[in-house]
Write a sequence for this structure.
């Protein structure tokens, strides 16, 4: 089976049992997980808007703030508490993707050029050695 290449975020096995999490309502729990996923997808480093905070209703958003899981920022946006301590940052994701793309390009160069003794003037790897 091929490795799953879809983007992902991390939740530990202890996440649902954490004292702040287990006290949440079902709606607030779901909102918290959705915010983590949305921030990862948007590569926002844990920051989001009031609209996103109220995605499951203002009561659920307020519950996350009161639980200390979300912090209001001075500019009117919000931030997930300790997001970058548990999730990859925008820079880490972009660096990983760039390295993966470069490794793929080099692998293609080796397969299609180096092993066949072909030099392609349009191939960066053929030109650099």
């Amino acid at each position: 089976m091929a490795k799953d290449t879809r983007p992902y975020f991390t939740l530990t096995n202890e996440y649902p049992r954490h004292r702040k999490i287990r006290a949440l309502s079902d709606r607030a729990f779901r909102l918290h997980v959705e915010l983590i996923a949305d921030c990862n997808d948007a590569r926002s480093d844990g920051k989001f808007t009031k609209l996103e905070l109220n995605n499951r209703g203002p009561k659920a958003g307020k519950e996350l703030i009161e639980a200390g899981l979300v912090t209001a920022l001075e500019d009117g946006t919000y931030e997930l508490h300790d997001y970058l301590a548990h999730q990859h940052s925008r820079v880490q994701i972009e660096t990983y993707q760039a390295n993966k793309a470069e490794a793929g390009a080099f692998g293609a160069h080796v397969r299609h050029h180096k092993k066949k003794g072909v030099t392609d003037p349009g191939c960066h790897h053929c030109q650099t050695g």
Notes: The chain has two domains: 15-86, 90-128. The first helix runs from residue 19 to 22. The radius of gyration is 21 Å. Residues 90-128 form one domain.
